[in-house]
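Structure request: MFS transporter, DHA1 family, bicyclomycin/chloramphenicol resistance protein, Chitinophaga ginsengisegetis.
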Amino acid sequence: MTNELSKSKYFFLILILGTLTALGPFSIDMYLPGFPAIGKDLGVDPTRVALSLSSFFIGISAGQLLYGPLLDRFGRKKPLYIGLVLYVISSIGCMYISSLNGLIILRFIQAIGSCAAAVASVAMVRDLFPVKDNAKVFALLMLVVGTSPMIAPTVGSYVTSAFSWHAVFLILGIMGALILIATILWLPESYQPDTSMSLKPGPIISNFLSVVSEPQFYTYTFAGAISFSGLFAYVSASPQVFMDIYKLSDKAYGWIFAGLSVGLIGSSQVNSQLLKRFSSQQIVPVALVCQTITGLIFIVCAWNNFLSLAGIIVLLFIYLCCLGFINPNTSALSLAPFSKNAGSASSLMGATQMGIGALASTVVSLYNTHTATPMAITMCGTSLLALFILLVCRRNIKTAVAAVPGAATIAH
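Returned structure:
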């Protein structure tokens, strides 16, 4: 089936998978400009509202471990339906919340629902497309996903200004409902239920252990997840940095956030072209080195108060460009060794990414120094650690999954 996909079918599948993947980022980015308004209405400091973002990251991390075995046991679509319904219900609930603790809890539940879409979409890439094309497909998904930070905060700022932050969650609920309808009507089931897959804790843990014991998986999953957690630190700290320190309006913040996302989108598409000449293993370390250097410059400038608004925008743009090269390649390399249990592998990869991201987000939220230094330290620290893990652990990869020369050249 995969090799016979027409161009129109290929595009349509990418579009649906992209909307599934984008649901989580939209849920993260769209309410960011409303932090001051949410804090005012709930009677808390706007920086404390970021804890609801951390709870969302924790929910996605925990939920992906749940959905992985379910996707392998029952097929991809049934667990996906359950997750999307849960997402819609919790989104509507967020509209009527009156306390920060309530928002934190509902955001956690909303994340449990949205992560079904994230895990299923990644697993279906592995199901529907050849291994040699996976990095290209992930880069295309990055293009669809990358529009969310361009659109979501800008739309969120105007919705918050024109109506209120409550309307943002109404829109998210409607989006979830529309994606559910599209999934039911047009997304094919890509994996037949595996009745031999046990849902008892023992076999599930054993299955996860077999996945994480694969050197190629743990090398690129941990390196990619830790590197990507720098993005979570940026997302959590950026409302305070831009709207509190640099005194920008919510609308101006939305436009800057959108502009910075161009770096992530553009570099992921440049990555697709580079894969015609270089392997994913060659691209990842170079991008990590560049990201680390950018992080070090960021720390020096933030620590010494050298950062103008233009300076911090340039540094963040370069940092996000590096992520556009790292994430598609580490994702493809992590999943390449798996076929039968791709759902469990994708959920474990996603849980690792979101769990580490939640930690980075929480660290930035707790250290409110009214400077960009906590964000700079966290972003640089994640890059340094990711580079260290890559250089140390990739020595354990003995036999790579064969790549097809000239295509995606994912030298797995």
